């Protein structure tokens, strides 16, 4: 078997495979690369030593059976026999469901999560979005401090378990999206800097030195990241990738890394003849991110739209701290602006940032499905001091209003696991660092962060306490009890309508027409022949729809069809979906 590794500064590289050590030779055709042959098979343990130093795992390791610090293992992807005959599911018309493997079930494994995929197929979502799977220290964590970007966290089940999960999802008609982190590497178990200039001090990120995308040696670093992305899509038949915090990918080169990545993914999609897509998390509000390369953009297929979330959250809860301050002055106006224009900040002044932010999105060129809309995400729940969900902040009627707006908006909807039944469990920040100093630093840093916002240290959960993770696991008995069962039925009804009514997946952002009353707390919008009305106030509201004939398709509380005068009477804290006839 051929082994190879990029180590441009090394004077000598040796391979240790199944206890046998042999020297590698320089590759005469690729500067900085070393290569050599060794007897190996699926499961063989190996690693590389530079200049007679300690044996380290392969930067391109496909498996880390003993965690980030252990030896790598050979993975023969051809051994797995795929069951599903899968042609893929494209992003237009999709509904995503964000899932954290470690807390979706109490067992916290991919196999246990796969057993619950039938629930998602019945719910009506189209894609499962897995939070990061790369190896990280310990057993439980969010996954954003992973290393070995080509491997699967062993406590989740490793490579074979991910293939079984994807196969099961595809057999149920569900696509699979994977969250990947290219903007930084985990602080523990990360040996990439030993091998080459994977990091640069030319730029800095909130997590330290930046990934090297534009300094000397960056060609190979970019190829490393692109190769990892393509491996998930090719070897595991993943359908799309969510790219974490792309605003932290600092790249001054004319050919931006994200453009390089989107070009490679589109080429792979053509090769395998199934749709593949990239969804960015971005704080930039820059439409060039999701504009095609032919039109001068970077060619990503979609992005998270935090503006919609912030406007909706502020409308529902009245919270005004931090970035919610920009939306708190007139939350329904902010919500209306995102429903019709995509971004709230499109060159406007942001009091939170103390500067102008964003640029306008051209609704005639950017389809609505390129923006993801959501009322909750792992970030927006887990980065609260106590990880309290929206269900802990507002009553079921307002949760129904949130679902109505999210699932009928002109965006690609995304749900956060458990949201569909108003889960009563929190989702808190938890880690399992094996380095005591790092564990203590994370614990103290978390408490300092929230102490600055008025929280008592003892009220902030200890990330290293196993109970913090345990509290965050979903309670699968809840969907059978009230009020959870009623909320779940509402989500199912709305998702069924989204799939049945073509106007609800119409990509034309400019076709959405909105009316609202900030004081009386109602908002209504129209998409083709579908009308949506949401009353957030506790009192009933009479809304003049301006159409002579409309039929109620779904309502959280009982609602009569509007009369000949076109007036719809909406109970307090309720949402209604109608069809003009």
TrEMBL record:
UniProt superkingdom: Bacteria
Coiled coil, from the record: none
Positions of substrate binding: 242-247, 306-310, 378-383
SUPFAM superfamilies from the UniProt entry: (Trans)glycosidases, E set domains
Active site positions, chain numbering: 244 (nucleophile), 281 (proton donor)
Associated pathway: Glycan biosynthesis; trehalose biosynthesis
One Pfam entry name: DUF3459
Family listed: Belongs to the glycosyl hydrolase 13 family.
PANTHER family in alphabetical order: 1,4-ALPHA-GLUCAN-BRANCHING ENZYME, MALTO-OLIGOSYLTREHALOSE TREHALOHYDROLASE
The protein's name: Malto-oligosyltrehalose trehalohydrolase
